[in-house]
Amino acid sequence: MSGYVFAMGACITCGRLFSFNPNAVPSTTALTGEREPLCRVCVDAINEKRATLGLPPFAILPDAYEPLPESEL
């Protein structure tokens, strides 16, 4: 039998609770020194700001906010 897994956590930027693939979700260590997840809404907002500054966007992997096969844990 196989299954899928996802993590749930609060976005380090806005505090919104969301589910994500712990291996693929965009994250930052800038605020706490530990890897903390970023929700899709915040990553989109960050990427808009980066574009106005002429910086490349942070990549969002296709499965970042989807469950992952348990075998990949």
Could you characterize the architecture of this molecule?
The protein has one domain. The chain is α+β, with helices and mostly antiparallel strands. The strands form three sheets. Strands 1-6 form a two-stranded antiparallel sheet. Strands 2-3 form a two-stranded antiparallel ribbon. Strands 4-5 form a two-stranded antiparallel ribbon. It starts with a strand and ends with a strand. It has one helix at residues 40-52, and strands at 4-5, 7-10, 17-20, 27-28, 36-37, 68-69. The relative contact order is 0.29. The protein has one helix and six strands, in the order E-E-E-E-E-H-E.
Fold blueprint:
Blueprint: E1 4-5, E2 7-10, E3 17-20, E4 27-28, E5 36-37, H1 40-52, E6 68-69
Antiparallel strand pairs: 1-6, 2-3, 4-5
Keywords:
73 residues, alpha+beta, 1 helix, 22% strand, two-stranded antiparallel ribbon, 6 strands
Question: What's the number of extended β-strand segments?
Answer: 6
C-alpha Rg (nearest Å): 13 Å
Order of helices and strands: EEEEEHE
Helix content, binned percent: 10-25%
Report mean pLDDT, rounded to a whole number.
93
Structural class: alpha+beta
Shape, principal axes of CA atoms: globular
Strand order, sheet with most strands: 1-6
Explain briefly what this protein structure is.
The chain is α+β, with helices and mostly antiparallel strands. The protein contains one helix and six strands.
